[in-house]
Structures are given as C-alpha cells and as structure tokens.
Specification:
By secondary structure, this protein is mainly alpha-helical. It has five helices and two strands, in the order ααββααα. The protein has helices at residues 3-10, 14-22, 42-54, 59-71, 76-110, and strands at 29-30, 36-37. A two-stranded antiparallel ribbon has the order 1-2. This is MerR family transcriptional regulator.
Length: 124
C-alpha cells in the first residue's frame, strides 16, 4: 500500500509515517517512480509504534524492541530494556492511580458543607 493509504488505514499523518521511517521504525520499498510502498502488516506495526510512544518510550527504545516483536526472539539486552520500560510504566500507573484517588476524595467531599480539612493533602 502507498503512504497515503497507510496513513488513512493507521489513522496517522503521512508526516508521522515519514518520521517513523527516518527513525528506522518502519520500512518501505520504493517504486521505480520513487513512491513508498508498505506491506499490509504495516498498519499493525504503526499502531504498535504509537502505543509505545504513548507509553513514553523513546524512538531508540522502540527501535531496540521492534526486532524482538518481529522475530519473537529476545536478546538479554532487549529483555533488560523491556523490563526497565515496564517498571517505568508501572511507576507511572501507580502515580496516576494516586492522583485519581485524590481527585475522587475531593469530588466526594466537595458537596459536604462540614468539610473543614484538606482532603487533597496526604495524612502525615
């Protein structure tokens, strides 16, 4: 499929696809006229790249992980990177859950006329 078709299928801009290609995250073959052509599986690959970016992974980290996904083989170095990224995401999730819990407390006590304390401050 051509770049515009992939952009539409994956829900991203053509510019994003060019960037992914510049970073080595996505590969295309060129036609005689210089047009980029991608395999049908590229839309799934773009979705995965976007998920990794959304999780805060860098292009460098994604580039190191992609071969493991493509081949199913994980080197010790890639495994260490995957574990470190998972642990970083776990810390983010814990922080977000804590923020959500504080918001829930504020929301719950917001309508209470006798609310005299500061429910958004942790006890201590």
């Amino acid at each position: 499929m051509r770049i515009g078709e992939l952009a539409a299928a994956a829900g991203v801009s053509v510019r994003a696809l060019r960037y992914y290609e510049e970073q080595g995250l996505l590969a295309s073959r060129r036609s005689a006229g210089g047009h980029r052509h991608y395999p049908e599986s590229a839309a799934d690959q773009v979705w995965l790249i976007q998920q990794f970016y959304a999780a805060g992974l860098s292009s460098k980290a994604i580039l190191a992980i992609m071969p493991c996904i493509e081949t199913g083989e994980v080197t010790p170095e890639a495994l260490a990177l995957l574990v470190a990224e998972r642990d970083r995401i776990d810390r983010q999730v814990e922080g977000l859950a804590s923020a959500r819990d504080r918001l829930d407390t504020i929301i719950t006590t917001a309508g209470t006329p006798s609310c005299t304390g500061h429910p958004y401050r942790p006890a201590g």
